[in-house]
Amino acid sequence: MIGELDADAIVGYFRGKSILITGSTGFLGKVLVEKILRVQPDVKKLFLLIRAANVESAKQRVDTEVTGREIFHVLKEKHGSRFEDFIQEKVCPLAGDIVYKNLGLDNAKLTELSKEIDIIVNGAATTNFYERYDVAFDANVMGAKHICEFAKRCNQLKMLLHVSTAYVAGEQEGILPEKPFLVGETLREGAHLDIESELNLIKETRREVKANYSSERAEKRTMKELGLKRAREFGWPNTYVFTKAMGEMTLGHLRGDLPVVIIRPSIITSILNEPLPGWMEGIRTIDSFIIGYAKQALSVFLVDLNLIMDVVPGDMVVNAMMVAMAAHSEEQAQRIYHVTSSLRNPAPYAVLAESGHRYFLHNPPRSRKNGEPARLSRMRFFRTLLGFRAYMAVRFRLPLEILRLLNFALCGAFSRRYNELSRKYRYIMHIADLYAPYALFKGCFDDTNTEILRAAVVVNKQQDKSRGYDFGFDPKSIDWDDYFYTVHIPGVVKYLCDH
């Protein structure tokens, strides 16, 4: 049973706390750091673990990649000329990495931290769907192990919050519960997963590749292919969600009686409310579709418009994280929360397609050739892989083959056109291959636990608004068409299209 929490109690919880945050240079990490500093300036210290050669380099990365970003403008205005002093007082960059034992920190720093840390937020991960297996395993599996080992050393730890993804569920259909993964569990019937064996396989494959190939490219390709092969062997669609599932297993197995909360967001989108509506960094699944359409590089997409896309704004994810920390402090249990929208307020892909078409009709992008407003035709959607591939074969493969033969016969006269068309074809096929598991996803994430957590938050709209507090994470409060048209798509255009 979760006790009632109002905004004052949530904000008050972070007063005087020392928090270790990994992954603070990522989108969600920045939103969390900014929110804590804005609503609770009396937080004791935010220790940010940053991949860097030394503390000076770590500090430089924080200045440019975290506190120097647009999302901190509200905080800068609030503190004025004292902003830099405030950041220096509250934010402590640590040069380290979760892929290393002891987080890459020396013994003196480790001992000092273990006496001071109250809360650990592990948001560091590699989110590349087809990352090298060794790289993804180090960050998403070994990282969870190293964080857990460090957490056990912290004498006054009240909470370890780990950010995972709802898509650890793979490509399952139906209602997907908020339940933990047990060690060895897989999504393929009859298969058993041994994490230690996977680590040994990675080491052995790397040894073999280094012995037989001298090129870094061959090693990279082999390790990427191995990750995908192993993921699919056990029932996951890609290396990212496979290694994130193993990270959850590792954490659950090693935690002992540590208070652990695992947050599983679905596709995280731009900020809905505060501090900067529409702000985002990093291209998410649905953003490739928006950017491709805006840049006239994508005229066709593999997606069933009747299926539900499960998206949730970044600020709502952070609100859920902060409420969960306050609600489960010092509990000797593991909690799992789906921060998702498919059950409470489902948004079909058709809403995004319609909002996108309408937005670009009213705000046409400029043509790269003459700077004139471009006329965009409606995008074609295919709900099956078979139909999509047939269209691509007739629309692109056949003309490409004819063009290749003509080009050869006429000594390269059509080289430029052939390269353009070939590049477009490869881009569309890559996007379809990458996002098919999500564009054709038929699961629905149960969020019963999250609904109980939501119900515990007592909202006093007038009072909270006057103080600038917003800890809402109810997807039912979102009008999806309005969000995409007025917030998210303009945000994609502003923050992602030109980057």
From TrEMBL:
Under InterPro entries, the record lists: FAR (IPR026055), FAR_C (IPR033640), FAR_NAD-bd (IPR013120), NAD(P)-bd_dom_sf (IPR036291)
Q: Which reaction does it catalyse?
A: a long-chain fatty acyl-CoA + 2 NADPH + 2 H(+) = a long-chain primary fatty alcohol + 2 NADP(+) + CoA
Entry keywords, A to Z: Lipid biosynthesis, Lipid metabolism, NADP, Oxidoreductase
Which stretches make up the Thioester reductase (TE) domain? 21-321
Sorted alphabetically, which Pfam families does this protein's record hold? NAD_binding_4, Sterile
Q: Biological process GO annotation list?
A: lipid metabolic process
Q: What is its EC number?
A: 1.2.1.84
Question: Which GO terms fall under molecular function for this chain's record?
Answer: alcohol-forming long-chain fatty acyl-CoA reductase activity
Family as reported in the entry's similarity comment: Belongs to the fatty acyl-CoA reductase family.
Describe the task this protein carries out: Catalyzes the reduction of fatty acyl-CoA to fatty alcohols.
What is the name of this protein? Fatty acyl-CoA reductase
